[in-house]
Every structure is written in C-alpha cells, then in structure tokens.
Amino acid sequence: MLIPASGMALPIVKSLTDCADYSKTIEPYIPQLAALPSNLYAAASSTDSLQHLYASTNPAISGLAFSLALFPIFLVVSEVNKNYSQVDRVWSILPTLYNAHFAIWGRVNGLPTQKVDNVLEFSVIWTMRLTYNYWRKGGYQIGSEDYRWALIKKQIGQPWFFILNVLFVSSLQSVLLFSVTLPTYILLLTSRLSPTMTLLDTVFARALMVLVVVEWFADGSQWNYHAAKLSYQQTAKVPAGYTRAQLDRGFNTTGMWKHSRHPNFAAEQAIWLILYQWACVDSHSLWNWTVGGVIAYLGVFAGSTPLTERISAGKYPEYRVYQERVGKFVPKLFGKRWDEREMERMAATKKQ
C-alpha cells in the first residue's frame, strides 16, 4: 500500500489493476472540480498558495478544469471573429501541454516519472510535426479557417451552427484534446508501483515515435505533390518525379497515398489507440475508462473524413475510382488495387 502524494490528491492503490479503476482514481476527486474556482480565487494572491493548490489537486481534475475553462474563450473569439478554427489552431499543442502537466505534477509530488517522460518526449515531437505542417499550410495566417466549417455552416444555417459551436466546436473538442491524454494519468499511477520502463513499455514508446515518423513522411508526400501540381499549373512543365496524368488528376496517389487514402489520419488514430493500449497493459486491464477519450477522438475522424472525401469526389472525377481501389485508412488486401498505368490509359481514353 502506498501513501497518496500531497494528502489525498492521488488514490491509495494496492495493485496495478487499481490504477485503472474509475471508482478509485477519478470518482473520489470530482468534488475538487467544483471547489477549484473558489480555491483558485482564494490562492490567487500568493505564489506559495497557488503551488500548494496545484500539488494538492488531482492532476486529472485540474487538467479537465483547464480544458473546460478554455471553452468560453474559444466560443467568444470564434463568434466575434466569425472564424471557427480557434480550437484547430491549438489542436497540435494542447495534448502535449496536458502530458507535460502530468509529468510536472509527478515531479512536484516526488513521483517516478520515467514512463510519463517517455510519453512527453513522443508528444513534443508529435506537436512539432503537426504544428509545422499546420503552419506551412497557412493555418496560423489571419483569417485562415478550415474550409469544412464554412461548408457545414452553409448546409445547416447560422442559428444551428451557433448551437453546434456551443455544444461541440468550442466545447467538446477542447475536452476531447484533454481526454485523449488520460491514459498518461494511468501511467503516472502505475509508476508508483512499477516505476521503471520495462521492455514492453519501451516497445510502446518507440511505436509512438515510429507513427509520428509515418505522419511526417505522409505529410511531406502530400505537400510535395501539391507544390508540384501548383508549379505545373503555373508553368505547364511537369516537375521531376511525377507524370502529367498524376498532376492532372488533382489528388495525390504517390508514395503512401497509393496504398491508403489517408495514411496521416491512419497513423494519427493509431497513436492514441497505442497510448491507450499502453495504459491497459501497464494496469493489467483489458480495457479502462479512458477509452472514452480515444473513442471520441476516432469519432472526429469518422465524421470529418467522409465530408472531406465527398468534397474531393465532387472536385476530381477519378476520386471515386480511387475510393473503390484504395483503402480509407488501411491498405486493401483483396480486390483490384490502384494501378497507375491503367489509370493513365483510362484518362487518355476519356480525353479522346
């Protein structure tokens, strides 16, 4: 039996299985969420009081409180500017802030943080990759907004879109970006009983890094293709590494994109599934309550990917063939696959 850090900020756990028990690790600390605003106000005038409040508040509860506090900020800024990509701008940053929060909280309370540190290392690389990709596509430019929000707003109308903004865009998305990191909280708890990285822990940590590398190359392939397409449209010259048919097609079918319609999305979803599985394995549980965050995260892709593909199918005539022959996330194992030469012949025949 271990004595809880900072009084009752963490539960007493007798086994690794206890670390994944919602009734022991979260439920007793829910009252802290309601008391936190008044406690924060009372401690605001003293740095020492703020530090004590931080250390004595369950880290999952303080993380949840922060994600909820962001909601009115996102809502007001998005409605004032009529730009609904406010959460999008911090999507690549918030999960790493939460993982850093768990690591810092553990250190403040003298807990072993080797496992959480490994999560944070991956998370920082993940943030660098996604933030850079978002930046180079112009996501941080003034007025930049995900084109899908405008399309949804046009379809359902401004009044209903405001409700969507209140219930999901500015609120649930913020909580989602916190909840997807909750497996790190379980790893923090298991570290009290099993403080060092095992071989299996190392495998999980390296798998997360590998998936970030996959995302990097998928992003690079997509970026290079569209840069080549733009150059081709401006100069009528086909850049090296591509054919005229590929560039005329309008969408990328090279590299990973020949085998998966969304290799970056596939890797992104796999990342958070693996983090969740890591927490399950470390807590000796087949599943645990943090699965809700993962399901919600996958739900975002389940909802947004069909919309993205519907737009692409409307813009590019060959995209429906691409959908038939190439798997959405995982490469197809059976049936007819993408054949570049065959597609080029089909395109030539249509032109004739």
Could you explain the architecture of this structure?
With 352 residues, the chain is mainly α. The protein starts with 21 loop residues before the first helix and ends with a helix. Helix 2 packs across helix 4, helix 4 (59-81) packs antiparallel against helix 10 and helix 11 (182-190) runs parallel beside helix 14 (263-282). It has helices at 22-25, 30-43, 47-56, 59-81, 86-90, 94-108, 114-136, 147-156, 158-169, 172-179, 182-190, 199-235, 244-249, 263-282, 291-315, 319-325, 340-351. The chain is globular, with a radius of gyration of 23 Å.
Number of strands: 0
User: Segments where pLDDT lies below 50 for 5+ residues?
Assistant: 1-7
Described by strand count, sense and barrel closure, the largest sheet is: none
Summed over residues and divided by their number, the pLDDT gives a mean of 94
Shape descriptor reads globular
Assembly type = single chain
The end-to-end distance, rounded to whole angstroms, is 78 Å
Radius of gyration, whole Å = 23 Å
Order of helices and strands: HHHHHHHHHHHHHHHHH
Strand content: under 5%
What percent of residues adopt helix (DSSP H or I)? Answer: 55-70%
Summing up helix and strand content along with how strands pair, one would put the structural category as mainly alpha
- Per DSSP, the total helix count is 17
InterPro entries: UstE-like
Keywords: Membrane, Transmembrane, Transmembrane helix
Protein name: Steroid 5-alpha reductase C-terminal domain-containing protein
Pfam families: DUF1295 (PF06966)
